[in-house]
Amino acid sequence: MRRRAAEYRRPVRRRFSYWIWALFGLFSIAGLVLLVVHHNQHEDRVEQPVLERNTGLDQVAHESLNFTEEILSARSFSRQLAEQMTLAKAYVIIAKEHNNLHLAWELSSNIRNCQLLLSKAAMRGEPVTLEEAEPIIKSLSYLIFRAEDAHYDIATTVMTMKSHIQALEERANAATVQSTVFGQLAAEALPKSLHCLNVKLTADWLRKPSLQELADEKRNSPRLMDNNLYHFCIFSDNVLATSVVVNSTVSNADHPKQLVFHIVTNGINYGTMQAWFLSNDFKGSTIEVQNVEEFSWFNASYAPIVKQLLSADSQAYYIGGYQDNVAPKLRSPKYQSLLNHLRFYIPEIYPQLEKVVFLDDDVVVQKDLTPLFSLDLHGNVNGAVETCLEAFHRYYKYLNFSNTIISSKFDPQACGWAFGMNVFDLIAWKKADVTARYHYWQEQNADGTLWRVGTLPPGLLTFYGLTEPLDRRWHVLGLGYDLNIDNRLIESAAVVHFNGFMKPWLKLAIERYRPLWERYVNRSHPYLQDCVTS
């Protein structure tokens, strides 16, 4: 049977076929294999329930064909069809280049028939038969012979193929950059409903003196400094996101009345935050809201980061238009926000506290976090989940090891860790003078040569040798960019983190994860209802 099918393969110019295969074969076969692997994985997920309902099926049918092996087998019709299809695709481009549109159309039609046959074979889990392959092999062989018989120049053809590949690569790169820029712009934009909520809350704060009086009354609560309670700090300008963090934390706490939340925001959103948290009850927990602009000590003479962010170069870098040589994600306004850098000044903000849990505003809490306060950090300052399961989360990916200041002090293979859910021992912090270490590294990076932007690179330097690894289940990351996080890992997580552009309050959020965040949004609040409907 195999010999009969081989009769329909016309002789081809080996040298020409070699060049075409070298340029296109690898890409096409790899793509086809990936498609088949995806199909097999899908079959693995869905086949078992089907067979449970059809117990009478034959055992052979139950053990579905491994189509990945089939497509790679040198003796299979599937492999022969794939190879001919690859060669035919190359000739489609060549025929179009030489204005032979009829031949290009015939080749494309047969390619579609070949793809359809391979797809059907993969879906049914059975190999391609001789009867199915014979007409397509015969037709493709004839068309390929006609294409070769046109005496296309090999060197010209190879150059044509290379130019097409280069053009496709340039288009793909441009599309990637454009997609990143659009994603960045979407992530920076404030949804209309959230802007509406901010306006309503700010109006309440300004026209209701009772709210301001209540805020003054709660400002001196002894609970804010009681180390027998559990203290959490959140630095954010997003009222709805902060509300979700607080609500999810108290909803999963065994004793929510023992929780104290310390929120710091900017001057623009201070009234918004106060109005929201004073008007809503979060299961009896204590909530403090402060304005970063009232921290008189946090100035350019004390904090190098303030001086750097106020510099003309920094303003031009962040506020100026997008530049081709700068990655869009490195131009995010969050890097210019002082709130983003307050995590290095927690003992200065709360001098009487001994231990705190720091939470980013894009996390959702799913378990009781109070056990974090009894963890033994073994004298370390920072308790964090390490992220070096993949190679790109090691120190050398974040820092410039070509600079001797870095290479002489740090191991490039040292394991990175995550901000977003961290336990800080503030007594150990003061003992190690961590803030001074942070200032030193910020001053060393005044010219931006040690790292580009962000808080994680200086955090890796500042807390080097002072970080205690936590169980991975305390903090699961990636819900803002990774579509394939294992459901079991998400379910077991104490905290899930929507780090990335696809924040859960944006339209571009990953739909699979959005319900994890939305379940803690108080949709019954009249302001939220009005803002959503309007």
Largest beta sheet: what is the strand line-up? 3-2-1-4-7-6-8
Structural class given helices, strands, pairing?
Answer: alpha/beta
Shape label: elongated
The low-confidence parts are 1-63
The gyration radius over C-alpha positions equals 30 Å
| Arithmetic mean of pLDDT | 82
Profile the largest sheet: 7 strands, mixed
The fraction of residues in strands falls at 5-15%
Helix amount, in percent?
40-55%
Terminal Cα separation, in Å?
Answer: 70 Å
Number of strand segments: 9
Can you walk through the features of this model?
- The protein has 534 residues and is α/β, with parallel strands linked by helices.
- It has helices spanning 2-6, 14-53, 59-62, 67-72, 77-97, 101-124, 130-149, 154-188, 192-207, 209-218, 239-251, 267-279, 304-309, 312-319, 346-349, 395-398, 404-407, 426-432, 434-444, 456-462, 487-492, 514-518, 526-533; strands spanning 230-235, 259-265, 286-291, 355-359, 363-365, 382-385, 421-425, 467-470, 495-497.
- It is built from 23 helices and nine strands.
- β2 (259-265), α12 and β3 form a beta-alpha-beta unit.
Provide a short characterization of the protein structure.
With 534 residues, the chain is of the alpha/beta class. It has 23 helices and nine strands.
